[in-house]
């Protein structure tokens, strides 16, 4: 054996020894130089699982969040036990698209006690705080002050006219509750902001910003994604009562309000436009304030939630448009949202790409013939 060969053999042995020492003492080195890792270069990278350093895995728990600062806010979900599957889908989507980063809490409300199965299946979907509450009878059911004979006649008329939910008392209970009571529930009292979510809705884009903080820091009170016309048959007397209230309380009208979104006649007539309230992010201080409290109480006294079929969408929209300035109402183009049968998909291509949106912008409802977005654009953009 010549000297050169002995030298090479000795050097090779030293390299092998050092390799094994490093493999045991340095985990990352061991992974990188393992047989599986080395042979993967010959098999092709698509079949391997790359090693991701621990620093790229932020710790999430109920005490440690992905962000340093959050608003005093919650999601609110009105659901029945029978809505469990649709509610799971909605929560799963908002978690995937937004809340796994921000960990805002949830409040679930029901006119009956939530079942153990509902609570169990919902609770596993997020590490965010979840609370389940029952709605009080006086806030949910048709009040005794309503003339049931007159209300029944109104329901029958709408059924004959083929109006959706025309004969439903429970739907009317829900609309009245969402209009004037959900923000008074004991579980909601500790929060200022809410984001309403319904069963079986879809969030089509990643939401990497905090809408609550944006609204808080920019003096916003109400946010929407879809605007459309209301069924006139459900609210024939609503605008007349709105005008009567304004005559009684002109002091509540905001300067630079959004009356132009609601009316082309300076408020004489209502064009039926409203923000679709199944998605809304809003400041409950606005609903709890004097102007809206008196407005809702006045409308509630008229009985239109039951004699007709007033929805919370036009009630909220009219109040926000009149008692807040138009600059305090926010359209979130970035939030891709769907509530059957309508979808809002971001118009801005950069937002659509950055949000990894699953919706088709060409099928967005924004400028459909039944949409009111063009009226909002005209008011806010001139």
Question: Care to describe what's here?
Answer:
- The strands form 3 sheets. Strands 3-2-1-4-9-6-10 form a 7-stranded mixed beta sheet. Strands 5-11-12 form a 3-stranded antiparallel beta sheet.
- With 382 residues, the protein is α/β, with parallel strands linked by helices.
- The protein has 17 helices and 12 strands.
- The protein folds into 2 domains: 3-56, no CATH class; 73-381, Alpha-Beta Complex (Spore Coat Polysaccharide Biosynthesis Protein SpsA, Chain A).
- The protein is globular.
- Helix 8 (169-180) runs parallel beside helix 15 (312-323) and helix 10 (238-248) crosses helix 13.
- Mean pLDDT is 87; it is low at 17-64.
Number of domains: 2
Strand/helix succession: HHHEHEHEHHHEEHEEHHEEHHHHEEEHH
| Strand line-up in the sheet with most strands | 3-2-1-4-9-6-10
End-to-end Cα distance, whole Å, is 93 Å
Annotation, overall tally of beta strands: 12
Query: Helices and strands: which structural class?
Result: alpha/beta
Rounded radius of gyration (Å) = 28 Å
In the CATH hierarchy, the third-tier topology of the largest domain is known as Spore Coat Polysaccharide Biosynthesis Protein SpsA, Chain A
Q: CATH H-level name of the largest domain... which superfamily?
A: Spore Coat Polysaccharide Biosynthesis Protein SpsA, Chain A
Low-confidence stretches: 17-64
Query: What integer is the average pLDDT?
Result: 87
Strand content bin: 5-15%
SS element count, helices: 17
> What is the name of the CATH architecture of the largest domain?
Alpha-Beta Complex
Helix content: 40-55%
Overall geometry = globular
Using the coordinates above, name the CATH class of the largest domain.
Alpha Beta
- Largest pleated sheet: 7 strands, mixed
């Amino acid at each position: 054996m010549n000297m050169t060969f002995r030298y090479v053999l000795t050097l090779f042995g030293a390299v092998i020894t050092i390799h094994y020492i490093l493999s045991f003492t340095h985990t990352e080195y061991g992974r990188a130089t393992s047989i599986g890792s080395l042979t993967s270069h010959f098999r092709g990278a698509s079949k391997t699982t790359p090693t991701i350093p621990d620093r790229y895995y932020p710790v999430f728990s109920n005490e440690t969040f992905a962000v340093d600062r959050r608003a005093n806010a919650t999601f609110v979900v009105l659901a029945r036990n029978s809505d469990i599957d649709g509610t799971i889908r909605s929560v799963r989507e908002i978690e995937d698209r937004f809340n796994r980063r921000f960990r805002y809490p949830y409040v679930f409300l029901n006119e009956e006690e939530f079942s153990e199965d509902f609570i169990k299946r919902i609770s596993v979907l997020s590490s965010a705080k979840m609370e389940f509450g029952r709605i009080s009878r006086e806030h949910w059911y048709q009040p005794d002050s309503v003339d049931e004979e007159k209300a029944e006649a109104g329901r029958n008329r709408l059924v004959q006219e083929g109006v959706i939910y025309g004969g439903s008392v429970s739907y009317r209970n829900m609309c009245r509750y969402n209009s004037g009571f959900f923000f008074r529930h004991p579980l909601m009292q500790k929060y200022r902001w809410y984001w309403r979510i319904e069963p079986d809705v879809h969030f089509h884009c990643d939401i990497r910003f905090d809408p609550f903080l944006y609204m808080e820091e920019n003096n916003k009170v109400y946010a929407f994604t879809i605007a459309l016309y209301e069924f006139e048959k459900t609210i024939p007397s609503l605008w007349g009562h709105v005008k009567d209230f304004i005559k009684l309380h002109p002091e509540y009208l905001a300067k630079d309000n959004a009356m132009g979104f609601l009316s082309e006649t300076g408020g004489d007539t209502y064009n039926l436009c409203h923000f679709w309230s199944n998605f809304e992010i809003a400041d409950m201080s606005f609903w709890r304030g004097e102007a809206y409290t008196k407005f809702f109480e006045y409308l509630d006294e008229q009985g239109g939630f039951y004699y007709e079929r007033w929805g919370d969408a036009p009630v909220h929209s009219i109040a926000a448009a009149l008692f807040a300035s138009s600059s305090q109402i926010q359209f979130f183009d970035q939030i891709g949202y769907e509530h059957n049968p309508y979808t809002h998909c971001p118009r801005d291509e950069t937002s659509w790409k950055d949000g990894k949106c699953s919706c088709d912008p060409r099928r967005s409802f924004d400028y459909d013939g039944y949409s009111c977005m063009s009226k909002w654009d005209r008011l806010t953009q001139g």
